[in-house]
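The instructor's notes for this session suggest beginning with a concrete chain rather than abstract definitions. Hand out the sequence below and ask the class to guess, before any prediction is shown, which regions might be ordered.
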Amino acid sequence: MATGGGAGSPCGACKFLRRKCASDCIFAPYFCSEQGPARFAAIHKVFGASNVSKLLLHVPVPDRCEAVVTIAYEAQARIRDPVYGCVAHIFALQQQSSLESIVHGIDGMGMQEIQSRDELSFQPYSKKRPSQTDLGELQALALRMMRN
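After discussion, reveal the predicted structure:
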């Protein structure tokens, strides 16, 4: 954990923003002086330092570390894929899971049954717009995760 203010070096966020790190800096516990600037750069580029600090103020202190990790992950995903962000990764994992369940289902089938099924043709993941059903399922999953 980084410490802000005093004789120590500023936290990674303040170092990136080139400002003095106050003793009550909201970023100090989550962005160390050495690796923090690189991690914070993506967060600042995507969300902005002010928005993230306001967001963290609304998160209970015990949950802030997890929130910072999540924000950092989403920022990196948004830089890689500005349109879908981490949703593209979720859809890819869902497709991989579906493919694995199909493959495991093949083990118990005869060769004729396999050839007669049109559903088994594999189509690689494409960056198509997700359907409303996919978005609804994803939204429900996100709400369940937030409640737990």
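Then share the key points. The chain has two domains: 12-80, 86-147. Residues 1-7, 118-125 have pLDDT under 50 and may be disordered.
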